[in-house]
Amino acid sequence: MNPVLVLGGGPAGLSAAAELASLGAPVLLVEKEEYWGGNPRRWHYSLLAPDLLPAEEVLNPLVSRVEGAPLIERHLRTTVSRVEPLSSGFRVELKGPETSGWREVSSVVLATGFDHFDSRRKYEYGYGRYPDVIDFKEFEGMIHDDRLTRPSDGALPKRIAWLLCVGSRDVQVGNPWCCRMGCAVSIKQAVEVRQKHPEIDTYVYYMDIRTYGLWEDLYWKSMNEYGVKFIRGRIGQITQAEGGKRLLATGEDTILSRPTEVPFDMIVLASGMEPGTGTKEAAQLFGLPVGPEGFLTPKLSDLNPVESGHPGIFLAGAATGPKAIPDAVTEGMGAALRAYKHARG
Amino acid sequence: MSVVAHLPHRTPTLTDTEAAHPPALELTGRRPLTAEERRTAETIFGEFRADGRYREYVLGCLNCGECTTGCPAARFYDFSPREMLQIAAVGDATTLWDAMQEKIWACCQCYTCNMRCRFGNDIAGIISVMRELSVRHGLESTRRVLAPFNRSLTLLMTVGTQVASDMIQPDFFRDWGPFAAAGEKSWDADPHLLRQAIPIDVLQTTTSSWEVSVQTSLELFRIYEEAGVLDMLRGLDPDLTEMLIDIIEERREEFEEARTRYHSQLAAMHGPVATFSG
Ligand SMILES: Cc1cc2nc3c(=O)[nH]c(=O)nc-3n(C[C@H](O)[C@H](O)[C@H](O)COP(=O)(O)OP(=O)(O)OC[C@H]3O[C@@H](n4cnc5c(N)ncnc54)[C@H](O)[C@@H]3O)c2cc1C
Ligand code: SF4
Ligand code: SF4
Ligand code: SF4
Question: Which of A329, B7, B98, B99 would staple B29 via disulfide (CB 3.0–4.6 Å)?
Fold first, then answer.
């Protein structure tokens, strides 16, 4: 049997590869970066929502399962540059430091994931201009390494705000969808801050809190156990105050119907999830349709979310839309099963 | 939450006497409507919802408040574009009526709210639709709100600009820089400053640029007549409308006289001359 190509080594791709190997199928796992683990590894996620497990405890077993499987041929810093259909399966051209050239594969799992919204595009929030306005993916790394200090002067902040839905649910930037993770991850970050530094005041500015399903528990706990405060309404503009020493968040408290101006030491932006550049490339390479949002679209998103509709190509993880790690892992398994069935003919 | 510094835009608390006879209630329309007012309110509501622009401008709202954050009017008045959009989207006849009494006039039509709105609403646009309706129906409150602006309105209707030449004082235009204020005497002479104010291609001076030819004036008024603006204004302020018509009538006579004079002089002249009709 020709190997199954798994493109992307994030949670979804790792899960698919491990699952295929456990079924006895040979796998060609290709990742363009120089590490396994996708976005969670790239940004050094700290604790994971909703169970507050350290990210390593989730990622490491996924990676070691893949590394310990002799059936999986792994390539980091490698991409697929060309694809040709065969009567059954595909020919793909790999480009990488260890391996280059054409290979035959029996089926394909695309697990190419997402990219973060570039918060500079919401210029009114001053990200990229004011050092203490921070994107929450960077904040993950800061909590992870216990560097909770302000980039501008190295001082410990006294008051931090989170601003949800940055680059999500917003037609001004062309992203009307919800990022699904922003609420839970921001609240989790506030909880982590309060766990480590109860003296820091934490505020979350929101228009809706979408800690869906059982994740709602995290939201409740954040208030009644950790004293995180919630203000309904958005910060519409961030400027500097007190001679550049602090940030001034102008917004509207839409419950009190009052404009507010609050000084903060640090403001964290919950930037949304966009279809990854790798996902867009893969769509082009394999001639697959993307939805209006730019994500890959399963043929039957309700009945069979892992099938692309094109014979032999299967989809998993955030490549088809924003989702959490457990969902990405589950889809990896589902795609593996379908890809295996297709490979066996 | 003591850390939140609220902006000083709220109406102050009423004194006991005021509370007994609240002056604000009448203006904001919060008192019970008379039967006639109710009828008008219902008609306005119907027209508002049927207006072709309604479906184009009012899309939906996440109540995020970003429109209000950037709104200059919200900093000074008890006014918020979010509230306006909400009223437009879900309000009933009475709520719309209330908002149309005074609030809609707080907006300065800067369109910042539209730039910010993540839902893509045209909030400034729907406010101007409300204003149009309040003028069209000659609401008493609208008359009162607009009364101080009669001078601007008269200029706008008769010459098409709301600034008159005698308003051009360096002090009024500080954004033109320190030299404008310093050199009041040389004001007319400094070509650099002058061209900052009036583009070179129109070749005007501070005096001439505000002069509108009689023809232009008449044409403009014709447009107002044909487009129904005059009828709209008549509903609101019949006296002002009559006055405007008088002014324009005078101009028309002036123009007719000049035309007759020109033609008779032309006829009296000998030899071939260039003529034009108009
Ligand atoms: C700040 C933040 C915090 C989060 N925290 C949590 C949390 O606490 N709990 C939780 O459940 N979820 C969390 N998530 C969601 C989680 O990140 C995603 O569910 C997960 O990363 C999706 O995995 P994936 O494999 O589909 O995609 P990705 O993680 O995006 O991985 C895709 C991989 O594919 C590679 N790739 C892409 N294109 C190509 C190509 N053409 N060729 C080769 N390789 C390619 C990429 O380099 C990348 O390594 C968080 C998300 C954000 C934004
Ligand atoms: S998950 Fe939360 S932060 Fe993200 S877009 Fe949805 S509501 Fe906004
Ligand atoms: S257009 Fe009116 S409502 Fe909108 S921001 Fe400007 S003043 Fe406020
Ligand atoms: S900006 Fe748009 S979506 Fe947000 S409150 Fe205003 S009208 Fe509603």
Answer: B98
**Facing residue for A260 by CB, picked from B4, B64, B117:** B4
B122 touches chain A (CB under 8 A): no
- The CATH number corresponding to B39-137 among 3.30.365.10, 3.10.290.10, 1.10.1060.10, 1.10.3080.10 equals 1.10.1060.10
Chain B: give the shortest CA distance to residue A250, in Å. 6
**Could you tell which of A52, A105, A166, A181 is best to mutate to test the pocket of ligand 1, judged by most ligand atoms within 8 Å of the CB?**
A181
Residue B183 confidence (pLDDT) above 50? no
Given a cut of 60, whether residue B18 has pLDDT beyond it is no
Which residues are CB-neighbours of A179 under 8 A, at least 6 positions away? A165, A167, A168, A270, A272, A273, A322
In the block, which residue shows the tokens 């349709």? A289
Distance between CA atoms of residues A312 and A318, nearest Å: 19
Banded pLDDT at B211 (limits 50, 70, 90):
confident
How far does residue B42's CA lie from ligand 3's centre (Å)?
A: 26
Q: Give the number of whichever ligand sits closest to the CA of residue A80.
A: 1
- Yes or no, beta carbons of B118 and A233 under 8 Å apart: no
pLDDT of B275 strictly over 70: no
Predicted pLDDT of residue B169: 59
Cβ within 8 Å, pair A251-B6: no
Answer for the pair A156, A200: CB distance below 8 angstroms, yes or no. Answer: yes
Averages of pLDDT over runs of 10 residues in chain A (345 residues) are 97 98 98 97 93 94 96 97 95 94 98 97 96 97 94 97 98 96 97 96 98 96 97 96 94 92 97 96 96 94 92 97 97 98 93
Question: Would you give the DSSP letter of residue B2?
Answer: T
What is the residue-averaged pLDDT of chain B?
Answer: 80
The CATH 1.10.1060.10 portion of chain B extends over 39-137
What domains, with CATH codes, occur in chain A?
4-113+276-344 (3.50.50.60), 118-272 (3.50.50.60)
Q: Which of B5, B68, B115 sits opposite A261 (nearest CB)?
A: B5
**C-alpha pair distances (Å), B168 with each of A12, B149, B159:** 68, 18, 16
Using the mean position of ligand 2's atoms as its centre, give its distance from the Cα of residue A273 in Å: 10
Is the pLDDT score of B181 beyond 50?
no
Give the pLDDT confidence score for residue B4 in this predicted structure: 32
pLDDT higher for A190 or B28?
A190
Indicate if ipTM > 0.90: no
The H or E element that residue B170 is part of is none
Atom of ligand 4 nearest to the CA of B65: 5
- Quickly state the pLDDT bin for B205 (edges 50, 70, 90): low
DSSP for A179-202 reads -SSHHHHHHHHHHHHHHH-TTSEE
**Residues of chain A that touch chain B, judged by Cβ-Cβ distance less than 8 Å:** 124, 159, 165, 169-172, 201, 207-208, 229, 233-237, 250-254, 257-263
Residue A58 near residue A325, CB atoms below 8 Å: yes
Give the residue-averaged pLDDT of B171-199: 54
Name the residue of B9, B109, B127 whose CB sits within 8 Å of the most ligand 3 atoms, as the mutation to test its pocket: B109
Nearest CA to A308 out of A328, A334, A327 is that of A334
